[in-house]
Design goal:
By secondary structure, this protein is mainly alpha-helical. The chain has helices spanning 20-42, 49-72, 74-77, 81-86, 93-111, 115-140, 165-170, 190-208, 217-233, 249-276; strands at residues 4-10, 14-19, 154-155, 186-187. The strands form two sheets. It has a two-stranded antiparallel ribbon. The protein has a two-stranded antiparallel ribbon with strand order 3-4. Helix 1 crosses helix 2 (49-72), helix 1 (20-42) runs antiparallel to helix 6 (115-140) and helix 6 runs parallel beside helix 9 (217-233). The termini are far apart.
Length: 277
């Protein structure tokens, strides 16, 4: 684990720590932007459209992630609302996805770019960026999974929080009652599971991006695949938001988004078939 990379002494601000999570988040946006810029150029979407979409995704994504986090942990937010909003934590994926999507669509509207073309361009970029970003979660020991004795198990003794028996019990994971709360346990490195699966999705979308299809089809495919990936990985996650008969809130959102993605793919394929007749 490398939660902190280095510390800078800046004028006025003072000491400012560069965390591995923050660095990987920046790298994720950069990697996504490079792919997005290549795709918007290939699709002849216009100059600087990729930069505008990145700005919309950045602002909308952070705002959406924070709003989701505040609502999900409202009991803690009420005690320190400003602290929760402006803390470095709380960048929840699905909140960021919804907010970022709205930000991108708004930018596409302003630039008079067809939304289907724009979201198709951003679909492979999203997969790559998500995979890179999850490495940051791994390096700081966040978003890990349930205890495991398998070869893949990893311990996070200084994670956020540490993977101790007590913390895992608090997340609702099954832990041997004979173990002390301070015992550090090996858990599923679900961050790396998501990185691997996201990179597979990226290569699938990158291969299919030149496939003849109506605008929006590639985005629908990404939505279905990304939601399915998250739904499956959630079974291995150590989480305390299993409100729906053992299913997490993220899994319920995944089901909805997967259904939307599949419906969009089917609708556009059917429309393409009718146009070819």
């Amino acid at each position: 684990m490398y939660p902190e990379l280095f510390t800078l002494n800046l004028p006025v601000i003072g000491e400012f720590t560069i965390t591995s999570f923050g660095f990987l988040m920046a790298l994720a946006f950069l990697a996504g932007y490079m792919v997005l810029r290549a795709e918007t150029a290939r699709l002849d979407a216009g100059r600087d459209v990729a930069a505008d979409m990145l700005l919309g995704a950045l602002i909308g994504g952070i705002a959406g992630a924070k709003i989701y986090y505040v609502l999900l942990y409202w009991d803690r937010t009420a005690l320190d609302p400003l602290g929760m909003i402006f803390s470095r934590s709380g960048l929840v994926w699905y909140g960021g996805l919804i907010g970022g999507f709205l930000g991108v669509v708004w930018m596409l509207h302003r630039r008079r770019v067809a939304w289907g073309l724009g979201v198709d361009a951003i679909a492979p970029a999203m997969s790559l960026a998500y995979g890179v970003g999850r490495i940051g979660c791994f390096l700081v020991g966040d978003d890990y999974g349930r205890p495991t004795d398998s070869f893949a198990g990893m311990a996070f003794p200084t994670g956020l929080p540490p993977s101790t028996a007590g913390n895992l019990r608090r997340f609702g994971a099954e832990v041997d009652p004979a173990l002390a709360d301070t015992e550090v346990l090996a858990v599923h490195p679900t961050q790396l599971y998501e990185t691997g699966l996201s990179l597979v999705i990226f290569f699938v979308l990158w291969r299919l991006r030149r496939h003849p299809h109506l605008q929006g089809w590639l985005f629908g495919l990404w939505l279905a695949l990304a939601a399915s990936e998250r739904f499956l990985v959630e079974f291995f996650r150590a989480k305390d938001d299993r409100f729906f008969g053992g299913f997490t809130l993220a899994q319920m959102i995944s089901i909805i988004l997967c259904a939307v993605g599949v419906a969009l793919v089917v609708k556009l394929r059917r429309r393409a078939g009718e146009a070819a007749v």
